[in-house]
Amino acid sequence: MRQGVEWALHSCVNLAWAGGPVPASRLAELYALPAAYLNKQLQSLVRAGLLISVSGPQGGFRLSRSPSTISLLDVVVALEGPEDAFRCTRILRNGPGGDPDLDYRDHCAVSLSMRRAELAWRHELAARSLADIAADVERTNPEAPQRVRDALLPGPS
Amino acid sequence: MRQGVEWALHSCVNLAWAGGPVPASRLAELYALPAAYLNKQLQSLVRAGLLISVSGPQGGFRLSRSPSTISLLDVVVALEGPEDAFRCTRILRNGPGGDPDLDYRDHCAVSLSMRRAELAWRHELAARSLADIAADVERTNPEAPQRVRDALLPGPS
DNA sequence: GTTTTGGTACTCGGATACGTTATGTCCGAGTAAGTGCGG
DNA sequence: CCGCACTTACTCGGACATAACGTATCCGAGTACCAAAAC
């Protein structure tokens, strides 16, 4: 899994606390990340419809909808793509008794088992929203949201 | 996920049917795979203790124990490594209020949620053995085992 | 004082290099079987 | 006829190239704000 997923997840939680638009450069300096690269990742989230980008001064990125309606799976899929990690290349077609016209992604026992496992994975991620994460953090560290907001303001830099 | 995982899984199922040792070259030509590269993958399975390799004529690879005691997870871990796909790099340490001495893999809400999802994935894979896969195939395609055995024999080539 | 107009600084967005990992290939070490010779 | 030693062919095992992808960076397009000038 790509490194950018971790950055994007944390940035999305921070955006949920921020409210208004925040430039990528400010999100990046929160964790000492390469700003230009984080920007690239957030662009993918914009293309997926999770974020809204606004140019110019006072611009940046903001969530496109309520944090409770954005799941971890949404973020992961936006960056990693919709296809499964395990890709069935239908090698059984070349084997003995292989049917060239059969889609082995739906018939190969190996492929089906791997898909079932990934489905369980996606189910867990889909059941957890950005708001859930934020709530967890607020429970164990109530001052975190305010600290993040302070750090994201145009501040003294 | 690596391509070799698919090859290794199918090869292991075929080894379960074969019984005796089968050289990598013969397993490879079953699906028109690059023999040397498949050999490389099987070596990882040997290092993980899933296969036993025997050199010389009539040699090859064979399962080290009963197919019912080898799970899909065993094969995947042998090739992909034991670490999670999502790796928490503890970026919160650099953030505001970050504790340099805290292991954020066990405290960061994002990391915990991702781990929970991967745990569900591993649970599914651990619950499915090579014998289960073989049984599924035999149910839908009873002649497959014999066909594989015939193809794996020293044959006419 | 109000409106307009030009400039300026800031932000995203995509195009461009770099390093690492996955992929693929090759040759040498080791081994068991087969063969020929000697007893 | 039986046993032994040599040769041979076959297999794994790791070291070596190649290609693809993830990572990182930079510069241009667009936009809102601000200031200055004109009315």
UniProtKB/TrEMBL annotation, chains A, B:
UniProt cross-references to PANTHER family, sorted A to Z: TRANSCRIPTIONAL REGULATOR-RELATED, WINGED HELIX-TURN-HELIX TRANSCRIPTIONAL REGULATOR, RRF2 FAMILY
Protein name per the record: Rrf2 family transcriptional regulator
SUPFAM superfamilies linked to this entry: Winged helix' DNA-binding domain
Organism superkingdom: Bacteria
NCBIfam families: rrf2_super
Organism: Saccharopolyspora cebuensis
InterPro entries: TR_Rrf2-type_CS, Tscrpt_reg_Rrf2, WH-like_DNA-bd_sf, WH_DNA-bd_sf
